[in-house]
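Supplementary material to the annual report.
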Amino acid sequence: MPNTTDIELRGVSFAYEGVPVLEDVNLSIRSRELICVVGPNGGGKTTLLKLILGLLRPDRGEVRLFGGPPRRGRLRVGYMPQYGRYDPQFPVTVTDVVLLGRLGRGGLAGRFAFYRAADRKAARDALALLGMDAAARRPFAALSAGQRQRVLIARALCCQPDLLLLDEPTANVDTVIEARLFEILRELNRRMTIVVVTHDLGFVSQWVQTAVCVNRTVVVHPTSALDGNAIRDLYGDEVRMVRHHDFLSKGGHDDE
Amino acid sequence: MNELLEALFDPDFPVLRYALVAGILGSIPLGIVGSYVVTRRISYVAGAIAHSVLGGIGAALYLQEVKGIAWCRPMYGAVLAALAAAVVIGLVSLYAHQREDTVIGAIWVMGMAVGLMFLAKTPGNVDPMSYLFGNILFISRYDLYLVAGLDVVVVALAVLLHNKLLAVCFDQEFAELRGVRVTYYYLLRRCLTALTVVLLVQVVGIVLVIALLTLPAAVAGHFARRLWQMMVLAMLFCMVFVAVGLGVSYPTDLPSGPTIILVAGVVYLATAVGTRLWRPNAA
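Predicted assembly:
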């Protein structure tokens, strides 16, 4: 299994209604890698994930997931979207949300209404791993932003994936929880490939093997380059890219 | 009160009994579908479907009475109009980049206008008001069977497909990634809404259907932690609103539909204000 390629993008370009977001992206992520995706807001990080998942189709180029079309491979992926797009009044408990990760399993139970004992156990285990088991019966809406993110990571894990895609899992958590999260991810990395979108490269650089910098184009910095001067180079790159972005769209920098 | 109970159990006077049974049976699909409508924030869509039903009823009555097409019953026109409205609104929101609320508003008013035009050109004393506000006291035994049938369909689908419908309502993108065919469930939900609206419009009128679709579910939403709890609570609230409304309107000789609506509306406003006062930090 190791040394096979999980994700492959060849010459991929994508535009939202005529505005180019990604151009000529080439990217190859092998099995059991731990990858960090960085870049400015609006640089195309989330778009990259959605292309990998087949939620968006590239205008040009080809995306392969586990060697096939994304739609076929996506059941093997655990995806954690950004937390902010949920209706805060929707009546669901934490367990309800995590159990969604068990959809799409075969058999009658998967086809119809009822989750099996194994599904409930997987949900409990995933919540326990992220330290959210005490909140299992609470309304999802009553949680803090950071807690909701941990629940969404638990839901992604509940899929029992071969590939974990996390979109900004540390956007609203303090550094203690962030450190704990990356320890968990490194542990999980023995069993699965992990791709994490983050804004905080300096902090995660001690854990990641490879950083993928996304800002309309994609540049990959390998593990060995991620020390000393190279990190400074990377930061330099980042700062320049951020300014470039700011220049293009006024106010696009507010959230950072 | 005694007079009310006597009327309710008088074997020669089924009117009030039928009205109450229709209200209780109708509360079941209204609670379930209403919870989807309220959580998905598509009350306006339900309103548009309900009003376009008037166009279908008007056209069918016109064809039947004026053009002599005997098989063209108002029910067929209503079903056709409701499904057409549901599909058009669904397609617009799925594929076109129109302002969805404007399209919904257009279908709403055009449905009504078409209905009123046909009714005006149809001889006989068809009162458009009877379709708008209905009259729960004119219900026949046949209507009750119809509503019971609707109960079976809606409950069966809601129970069997609960997990997937919940997934699609809460997080459509994630549901798609888990292999759920979201477009199919989206249209299924819209068709269930249309079916519930059509059948109950015949029974209790357009305005009462919209009121009982949204207000009990909205009240339930203040108390429920989970979607199925919201549905069950919405059914119970709906039953209570109908029973109280009938109980108030019968002895006082007030129109039953508006009375039920006002009972539901007052309770909704009271809970909306009450939850804000008692739990100022709640979402």
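DSSP finds nine helices and nine strands in chain A.
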